[in-house]
Amino acid sequence: MPDRPLRDQVAVVAGATRGAGRGIARMLGEAGATVYCTGRSVRGRPATPGRPETLEETAELVSAEGGQGIAIRTDHTIESEVEQLFARVRAEAGRLDVLVNDIWGGDALTEWGKPFWELSPSNGVDMLERAVHTHIITSRHGAPLMVERNAGLIVEVTDGDTLGYRGNLFYDLAKNAAIRLAFAMSADLHAHRVTALAITPGFLRSEAVLDHFGVNEDNWRDAIQKDEYFAESETPCYVGRAIAALAADPNVGAKSSGLFSSWGLAKEYGFADIDGRRPDWGNFFRRKVQAIVERDSPPGDFDLFVVRSRLYQAELDPSAAAEADRLRAWLQHH
User: Fold this and answer.
1) Are residues 194 and 129 in the same domain?
2) How far apart are CA 97 and CA 319, in angstroms?
3) pLDDT at position 1 over 50
4) Beta bridge partners of 73
5) Residue-level pLDDT at 111
6) Which of 74-83, 235-244, 313-322 has the lowest mean pLDDT?
7) Domain that residue 195 falls in
8) One domain, residues 314 and 271
9) Is there a smaller number of Cβ atoms within 10 Å at the N or the C end of the chain?
């Protein structure tokens, strides 16, 4: 990138070890930023069973993209460690321009296919601590560096660009909480000209997803035969470029409190994924739903899940009232 619009900016990406967090850190580096990459997995001390990625690798990727990557092991469930993180940022950089909350850790705790009364309360509480409480205390200690300068951007990473139900009570609470955090923080930050917003990737080709399908980034299309929805997947760098574009936008404050998607921002700012594609998960998903309801053959369990998922979204969108009626009627017959 010959023009590096973030070359004088400092970012913290919380949850940068792998997945979206790593892609976001990389693309902030591509735009020239100094990026503090935080999380728990460092060389010799892995924190997630079965996953080899480390913060040091992420920091090296940031630097390779043209920025400066700095790895700091931080357990964001421990407030004292979060305080120490931002004390170091203040001492070394003297400023904070971008804070990205991408801490998750809930995959192993999500019990899909169960009603809420059959879910493990302890798993749910752990998920909310990892995916919501961590975001709160991280923003709590990062925001003052922005408030004192009357400038900055806080990004909450979620899953889904609507408030529709996500199929599991605790997962739904966690992902919708990230959206609400951005909304609530924006109200308090408005007077200080600091922007808070939420963003979602689409079907993410994370390291774990590629491993699940038995493919890599070079041959990922081979997995489409296993899951047709994978055809519209995106690399973690797509949402990374979306956040870099937001951070470089002098008018980003107009988006404060909003919920955005990688594919929607790609259209607005004109960027592509690192493979040159411009996946549009939102339109792709709606087309798939339409194909299911127009098909003559009986739907399978996954088809029903997909249609219900779209219905949950459409019911909250006044402009989609007619679609919601059609989907509701179709489900009543199946």
Assistant:
1) yes
2) 36
3) no
4) 39
5) 95
6) 313-322
7) 10-279
8) no
9) C
Least Cα distance to 95 among 207, 11, 220 occurs for 11
Provide the number of structural domains found in the chain. Answer: 2
Of the candidates 36, 165, 171, 238, the residue annotated as catalytic is 171
**Taking CA 211 as the corner, what is the angle to CA 300 and CA 259, rounded to the nearest 5 degrees?**
70
| Position 58 pLDDT exceeds 50 | yes
Indicate the Cα dihedral angle 270, 274, 275, 277, nearest 10°: -20
Q: Within this chain, do residues 309 and 237 fall inside the same structural domain, yes or no?
A: no
Q: Is residue 2 part of a domain?
A: no
Co-location of 261 and 245 in the same domain: yes
- CATH number of the domain at 39, please: 3.40.50.720
Residues 173 and 318 in one domain: no
pLDDT per residue as tens digits for the range 280-301: 999 999 999 999 999 999 999 9
Q: Is 266 a domain residue?
A: yes
- Residue 229 annotated among the catalytic residues of the structure: no
Q: Which amino acid is at 104?
A: W
What's the N-to-C CA distance of the chain in angstroms? 51
> Does any domain span residue 109?
yes
Residue in the structure block whose two tokens are 């574009």: 245
Whether 69 and 185 share a structural domain: yes
Q: Is 127:176 a contact under the CB 8 Å cutoff?
A: no
The alpha helices in 35-167, defined as continuous H runs, are 55-64, 79-92, 121-128, 134-147
Starting from the edge strand earliest in sequence, which strands make up the sheet with 34-39, in order? 68-73, 34-39, 10-14, 98-101, 153-157, 195-200, 259-261
pLDDT tens readout for residues 177-192: 999 999 999 999 999 9
Report the half-sphere exposure of 210 (CA within 13 A, side-chain side): 16
Listed residue (167, 169, 176) closest to 120, CA to CA: 169
pTM: 0.95
Residues 6+ apart with CB under 8 A from 289: 306, 307, 310, 327
Burial 171-203, CB ≥16 within 10 A → b, else e: bbbbbbbbbbbbbebbeebeebebbbbbbbbbb
Task: Classify residue 3: in a domain, yes or no.
Answer: no
